[in-house]
Write a structure and sequence with these properties.
Rossmann fold; 14% strand; alpha/beta; single chain; 40% helix; three-stranded antiparallel sheet; Helicase, Ruva Protein, domain 3
């Protein structure tokens, strides 16, 4: 398609230039009417954040997204560009995307005055109409708005008040587009004051000279709650000028969290058959849910979705490492792989004082254990449910009835038996060790339907044992990536690590 190349051709085509907020509004309405996805890849916000965002765009508001880390704030902001027209015309060579019909920079205004309808026009893509700046304490007004360039002034023999001596900052360069500032509270108060005119009067002022340039721009900000970012605050007059404050949040259901991790995590591995039983996905997400209510974790800091993404990637990677070592083309995680997710947890949770006293590794292990326990209850009967009353035996004594679900398994360990598994075992060795436990495979089959027998069933069997351990039915020792399951009472008297000393 041949697009107008001069101002005259553009005028003859009947093209009109809407404001950027009108443009966003019109394209949003078009997408809504056609049923297109407004913000692809944004999960869990359909009934909360997205409606608020749509309302703000329809109202032609400047916006701030307020929420804890890892809540897709930056991704949402960057997707706003999809609501811009794909291409728009600007005066060719303009630094601030001048509207050919109404140029505002001296360069463009002079060019249009000199050449009239023959003024060259270029078409820029919407990706060139978006700018973003991470707020840091060293950001200056010159970075955002611009400054007088003394070298340019001297070379062209211009007075400092002359518009030709201006070096434009990032905001004017996003004229007729969207500009975003991430972590707004980190911006020094005196720099925040410099945004007043852009938000209210829609113009920029350079230094103390009487130079005012009208801007057509949408401003979007992101920030963590002020009670967390002790480094700074959003000053009240600036908050007053931001039209809509939209609160983001973490996934409110386990399935939403699983979808986010599946979308973002590097799970597929080249040349390998990846099989991740669904309960593993639930365990990984449950870790974050447990962390978000833990008394040891700083809840003002938040627990990012990046934590579960990293944890899932580490889990798959350890299973992949095993598959490479033993020459297996099928990758299935095991419960004994879970200690390898800790590097994805310990650096991503901020602890309160009590948590620091415990240590990040210990707190993370406890969170994993709680996640296993909660997930286990979704698939198997609660081992801690109330038992039937003792029955009278013929000898006159009271006899405790056997647990119909877990009795065989627990009694097998109570008889002094134990098993050891590790993340380095072949699938044959792993299965053989787990099959030693009487009744384990039968119980697993009873409650977990549709599980592939050879590679997946052993992982579920260990899940049962770990679930019993997390509910204090059997004991578990971990040492050098070897996991031992044994009798609870026997482990109390033997003490941790005794079993390894026998080898």
């Amino acid at each position: 398609m041949n697009r107008p190349a001069t101002l005259g051709e553009l005028r003859a085509s009947g093209y009109t230039v809407p404001s950027v907020k009108d443009e966003l509004r019109a394209n949003l309405i078009r997408k809504m009417r056609s049923g297109e996805a407004l913000f692809p890849g944004i999960i869990g916000y359909d009934q909360t954040v997205v409606p608020a965002l749509v309302n703000a765009i329809l109202a032609k508001h400047d916006i701030i997204l307020l929420g804890l880390r890892g809540q897709a704030k930056t991704r949402i902001v960057r997707q706003l560009t999809t609501l811009l027209d794909e291409l728009i015309p600007v005066v060719q060579g303009s630094e601030i995307n001048d509207n050919p019909f109404a140029p505002v920079s001296k360069f463009a205004a002079d060019l249009v005055r000199e050449r009239g309808d023959s003024t060259p026009v270029e078409w820029i893509h919407r990706t060139r109409r978006y700018g973003e700046k991470l707020a840091t304490p060293d950001v200056t007004i010159a970075d955002l708005i611009g400054d007088i360039d003394p070298i340019k002034a001297a070379a062209q023999r211009l007075h400092y008040a002359h518009e030709g001596a201006i070096h434009f900052g990032i905001i004017p360069r996003c004229n007729r587009g969207i500009f975003a500032i991430n972590e707004l509270p980190d911006l020094q108060p005196r720099i925040q004051v410099g945004l007043f005119n852009i938000l209210e009067e829609k113009d920029v002022q350079i230094r103390g000279f009487n130079v005012r340039i009208p801007m057509d721009i949408m401003l979007v900000f992101t920030a963590n709650p002020e009670d967390y970012t002790n480094r700074g605050n959003i000053i009240s007059p600036l908050k007053d000028r931001i039209d809509s404050q939209i609160l983001t949040h973490y996934p409110r259901s386990l399935e939403e969290a699983i979808r986010i991790t599946e979308q973002e995590a590097h799970i597929a591995r080249e040349g390998k058959d990846i099989r991740v039983p669904h309960f593993f996905r639930e365990i990984v997400e449950q870790i974050a849910f447990e962390a978000r209510k833990s008394e040891f974790v700083d809840q003002k800091s938040g627990v990012s979705a990046r934590m579960t993404i990293a944890a899932m990637e580490n889990l798959i990677s350890n299973a992949e490492r095993r598959a490479i070592a033993i020459g297996d083309d099928v990758i299935v995680p095991r419960i004994c792989d879970l200690p390898h997710v800790l590097p994805g947890l310990t650096g991503k949770i901020e602890l309160v004082f009590e948590g620091e006293q415990e240590g990040s590794v210990k707190v993370s292990k406890a969170l994993v254990g709680k996640a296993v326990r909660e997930t286990f209850k979704r698939y198997f009967p609660d081992p801690l449910r109330k038992r039937p009353r003792p029955v009278q035996d013929p000898q006159g004594g009271k006899q405790q009835p056997e647990d119909p679900e877990y009795g065989k398994i627990v009694q097998w360990f109570e008889a002094g038996n134990k098993i050891e598994v590790s993340d380095a075992m072949t699938i044959g060795e792993y299965t053989k060790e787990l099959d030693k436990v009487r009744g384990l495979r039968d119980l697993t089959r009873k409650y977990m339907k549709g599980i592939e027998e050879h590679h997946e069933m052993p992982s579920v069997m260990e899940f049962v044992l770990d679930g019993l351990h997390q509910n204090s039915k059997i004991a578990k020792d971990e040492l050098d990536h070897r996991t031992a399951y044994k009798d609870m009472v026997g482990s109390i008297f033997a003490g941790p690590g005794k079993m390894y000393e026998e080898d």
